[in-house]
Amino acid sequence: MAKKELRAIKFAQSIETEAPSNSIKVDEISVEADYSGPKLDSVDDINADWVENLMEHFRDQKPLHKKYAIMIMLRAKEIFQSHATLVDVPIDDDKEFTVCGDVHGQYYDFVNIFKLNGSPSPNNPYLFNGDFVDRGSFSVEVILTLFAWKCCYPDSLFMTRGNHETRNLNKFYGFEGEVVKKFNGQVYDLFCEIFCTIPLATCLNKKVLCVHGGLFSKDGVTLEDIRNTNRFREPPDEGIMSEVLWSDPTKENGIHPSKRGMGVAFGPDIAKKFLDNNNLELLVRSHEVKPEGYEVEADGRVITVFSAPNYCDQMGNKGAYIRFKGSDMKPQFNSFPHVLHPNIPAMFYAKPYSLF
Fold this sequence. Notes:
alpha/beta, six-stranded mixed beta sheet, five-stranded mixed beta sheet
């Protein structure tokens, strides 16, 4: 083995040894006698009723104890680690599947989706397509609720990583500050560790590929290339992992530089070629606010879905989710308006606020 490869292996092992999940001793965390929120003797106790009670607890702006939050997080990490980088999800002909886009810490709009469309269950499965946190000021409540449903129904609640499930963006767009305020830095580091385990893509019925951002600067990328991508890290500046998180569609054919400075802008011809080469019908992605919560492009083959209405309390957009029936996998769009939330503004925990 080459010295360079050996150093890389030892470095990876050292990171794993120092990971927060290996240093946190859950049994040593005490629960105060006056804590009256949801409790767990074991993560095996997480069922639908428990998660519904947690959601109601969060609606009332009450915190989950750090001990139980960490228990949920550690189990969610185990489940995500068992998934492939590209998760294949079969859908029976008589079943339906819901895909949601960015929710960005807008907890009250997030739980409104379940009010409109039903809570996750084996008969009502969901995919949340990245950007669960940042900007909105209830990101902790969103991500812990998602992790709790993941623990409850590992094969009925799916998540793909977004560009905001990264340290660089969490530092400036609120999630780091929120977690440190509501818990502490150790819990934030554990969230970052878990984000590096979340899959990058989900393929529904071998027909619909769902990623947060979009397609690639390199020609000829296959689903197998995505499956073989190392996701257990912070995203690099270029390559498949970066582009799947950051890229956007454009109406011009070809590949173009991204206005974001990360990823690429890919045209309808690029989308068609990628989908045809991989025997896919649709690309569903998120990552961009849309007036109706969704947009269809590239002759119907690229769909953007965005599920954070009145984004950042100021955009006036609707949110949306998509339902697919297994028998035909045709998208059915559902738009919805925002709901009121407690008087804590978007970006409250972000860096600009922390300076004052």
